[in-house]
Amino acid sequence: MAAPLLPAPGTPMVEIRGLRTEFELPGRKFVVHDHLDFSVQRGEVVSLVGGSGTGKTVLLRQILGLERPAAGRIDVLGRPVAELGQRGAASRVGMLFQHGALFSAFTVLENIAFPLMELRTLPKALIYEAAMVKLQMVGLKPEDGAKMPSDLSGGMIKRVALARALIMDPPLLLLDEPTAGLDPESSDGFVTLLRALHRDLALTVIMVTHDLDTLFELSTRIAVLAERRIIMTGPPKQVIAFQHPFVHDFFLGPRGQRAMELLREYPFAV
Ligand SMILES: Nc1ncnc2c1ncn2[C@@H]1O[C@H](COP(=O)(O)OP(=O)(O)OP(=O)(O)O)[C@@H](O)[C@H]1O
């Protein structure tokens, strides 16, 4: 019997306890996470922030089941992540990689259809129909489906990658720097799209971002990764008030005034 897509009511979408992540370097171990606890409830949009190299992307990859922890437990949608298997994870967790990661030799529609094609369970015509629905869901036109990735703007690449991440209707979406590298107009458009999709598809979202506009526009909660664990999590206003050098620099350093303006601007940021 196929496992249900959603965990039982009240069970977190993601629950991480006592996570330790290490990488082998010549002659020593490099510890990225230690005693890290983190959980995400259904419907939340949680932004992970932290200094460069603190292990935000690695954490997303672990939630996707692409990396094994040295210790600790990661449950995704109510089950140990290892049990999802690679194919299972793809159908339950959508991931938007930082640089889109499109296949350059495939058309837009082939890129979007790829995860379903790999499953080899549905007829091709049905798969392309589903891909066409997702193409339009992310605001692209049917004729864009025949284009090659090299013909696309940065904003379009992100949209195609998002359509591909959503092809299997996952209830959980992971976003790694969704607006990095986009000009302000494309970035605003993409944030508006993400906000609408979160609402319309009842998605749960975990996002890594350095961009304060994206962060305040979308987040219902922020989690701060520092000292190898989540040192603070809460609504934006609470996190900004937390006394820690990283939090101070990130929100209240040179960018602080902008952060305060954004807090006044966005009703979400409570
Ligand atoms: N496969 C790997 N082997 C060895 N070290 C790795 C591997 N993957 C990640 N690392 C290291 O783990 C640390 C955390 O990497 P990660 O990419 O998660 O950081 P990040 O918080 O996302 O950083 P940034 O904000 O700069 O993107 C880095 O020092 C990185 O070099």
UniProtKB/TrEMBL annotation:
InterPro entries associated with the record: AAA+_ATPase, ABC_transporter-like_ATP-bd, ABC_transporter-like_CS, P-loop_NTPase
Keywords, in A-Z order: ATP-binding, Cell membrane, Membrane, Nucleotide-binding, Transport
ABC transporter domain sequence ranges: 14-252
A single GO molecular function term of this UniProt record: ATP hydrolysis activity
Organism domain of life: Bacteria
Record's keyword annotation contains Secreted: no
Stretches assigned to coiled coil: none
Nucleus is among the record's keywords: no
Protein name stated in the entry: ATP-binding cassette domain-containing protein
Originating species: Ramlibacter humi
